[in-house]
Design goal:
Helix content is 31%, strand content 15%. By secondary structure, the protein is an alpha/beta fold. The protein has one domain: Aminopeptidase. Strands 1-3-2-4-7-5-6 form a seven-stranded mixed β-sheet.
Length: 262
């Protein structure tokens, strides 16, 4: 099993493409020992968003680490953010630029193609199929792509991120009313700093599936780890520590579930 999909009864799909932590043993043996800690995981986002199943949204969760293949990168491996450091579809570096692989163990193009076929394509076929199912039922579908990251990663971006980073590809990936609903929820809360279409405007998933003219609306939420966990020990899950962030996320999902196209 490379992912799980819980199908819901709302026109809403929540995807958490960087939550996976598993590494195939044969691949892990080719990586530096540090890689086994999968430090660049979007830690515990599958727990942050697990309420969506009770609300009735569909929920898509991968099993394998982004070190195997990055599900939020284009298959052509074009950079997501021109002019900045970027990781690739089969990452060869950590988020600080250090090498991920032992010498002479970096995957060649044939191995990259194989990983795309075995891991990337099934996940994306599932996104497309579920969005199609929901649109056929309701006339539209919303994709909410959930992510998290350390608040400061100098190799990838300058300074410190706001706590909550909403991405709508500058308003192109969803109807304006969808974007406005999300912004309204973020403005109503006071505990977390936030920005819309700042450094993280939306990755490949948001850009590719955000087709409002075809009834598919997509948004991305990139959260800092410190919004819901201790950045010094991200593998540790504390539900009490995470509850305030979960309340904001639940408010976002509930608001989106109540939206209807004009």
């Amino acid at each position: 099993m490379i992912y799980t999909l819980d199908k819901g009864h709302l026109p809403l799909l929540v995807s958490v493409p960087h939550s996976g932590r598993e590494l195939p043993p044969a691949l892990a043996s080719r990586m530096v020992p540090r890689a086994l800690e999968v430090e660049d995981t979007d830690w515990h986002v599958e727990k942050l968003y697990d309420f969506v199943k009770e609300l009735g949204a569909s929920f898509l969760v991968p099993q394998f680490s982004r070190y195997v293949v990055d599900l939020n990168r284009p298959p052509e491996d074009l950079p997501m953010y021109a002019g900045a450091n970027n990781t690739t579809i089969c990452p060869t570096t950590f988020f600080n630029g250090d090498p991920l692989y032992l010498p002479d163990q970096i995957p060649d193009q044939s191995e990259i193609d194989e990983r795309i076929n075995n891991y990337w394509k099934p996940y994306h076929h599932t996104i497309a199929a579920e969005l199609t199912r929901l649109r056929d039922l309701y006339g539209y579908a919303i994709l909410f792509d959930g992510h998290s990251i350390r608040g400061e990663v100098p190799w990838l971006f300058e300074g410190r991120l706001p706590d909550l980073n909403l991405g709508t590809v500058n308003g192109l990936s969803c109807a304006s009313a969808v974007r406005e609903r999300c912004v309204d929820v973020l403005k109503l809360q006071t505990q977390f700093s936030h920005v819309t279409d700042g450094r993280f405007k939306g990755g490949y998933i948001t850009r590719h599936y955000g087709r409002p003219d075809q009834g598919w609306h997509a948004v991305q939420m990139e959260m800092t780890w410190s919004s819901y966990l201790d950045e010094a020990s991200p593998p540790h899950w504390d539900p009490v520590r995470a509850e305030p962030a979960r309340r904001v996320l639940k408010g976002l999902i509930e608001s989106l579930s109540q939206w209807r196209p004009d």
